């Protein structure tokens, strides 16, 4: 099967005052389906808030810009939230099962 490697634009899932979320879904792009992966882009405005969500697969977050970001994560079987300060260039591994 021949793969189409041309750039693909993400589908806008949500846009509001605090930011927006875009997705490259394996249901929309055959190459992603074959590789069993997907992608997303979360854009937060200053003082924007990303609502908590459950990670049903391993993910990696990468901070493209900004200096004063904060992320909170709750790991399975943990009694306390982990809070991290983020800046441009930081990478955040998010294991499956994390909120």
Features:
99 residues; mainly beta; 3-stranded antiparallel sheet; two-stranded antiparallel sheet; 1 helix; Cupin type-1 domain-containing protein; Cupin_1; RmlC_Cupin_sf; Seed_Storage-Functional
Concise overview:
This is Cupin type-1 domain-containing protein. Residues 3-99 form the Cupin type-1 domain. This protein is mainly beta and 99 residues long.
Task: Give a structural overview.
Helix content is 6%, strand content 36%. By secondary structure, the protein is mainly β. The protein has 2 domains: 1-51, no CATH class; 52-99, no CATH class. It has a 3-stranded antiparallel sheet with strand order 1-2-3, with no helix packed on it. β5 and β6 form a beta hairpin. The mean pLDDT is 85. This is Cupin type-1 domain-containing protein.
List the helices and strands and how they pair.
Elements: E1 11-16, E2 19-24, H1 30-35, E3 39-44, E4 59-62, E5 69-73, E6 82-86, E7 91-94
Antiparallel strand pairs: 1-2, 2-3, 4-7, 5-6
- Overall residue-averaged pLDDT value: 85
Strand composition percent: 35-45%
The radius of gyration over CA amounts to 15 Å
Poorly predicted runs of 5 or more residues: none
Order of secondary-structure elements:
EEHEEEEE
- Total helices: the number is 1
Distance between the termini: 37 Å
Per DSSP E runs of 2 or more residues, the count of β-strands stands at 7
What kind of sheet is the major sheet?
Answer: 3 strands, antiparallel
What's the number of structural domains?
2
């Amino acid at each position: 099967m021949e793969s189409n490697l041309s750039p693909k634009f993400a589908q806008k899932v949500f846009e509001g005052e605090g930011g927006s979320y875009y997705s490259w879904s394996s249901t929309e792009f055959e190459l992603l389906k074959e590789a069993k992966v997907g992608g997303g882009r979360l854009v937060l405005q200053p003082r924007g808030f990303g609502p908590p969500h459950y990670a049903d697969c391993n993910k990696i977050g990468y901070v493209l810009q900004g200096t004063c970001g904060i992320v909170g994560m709750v790991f399975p079987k943990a009694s306390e939230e982990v809070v991290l300060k983020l800046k441009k260039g930081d990478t955040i591994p998010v294991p499956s099962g994390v909120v």
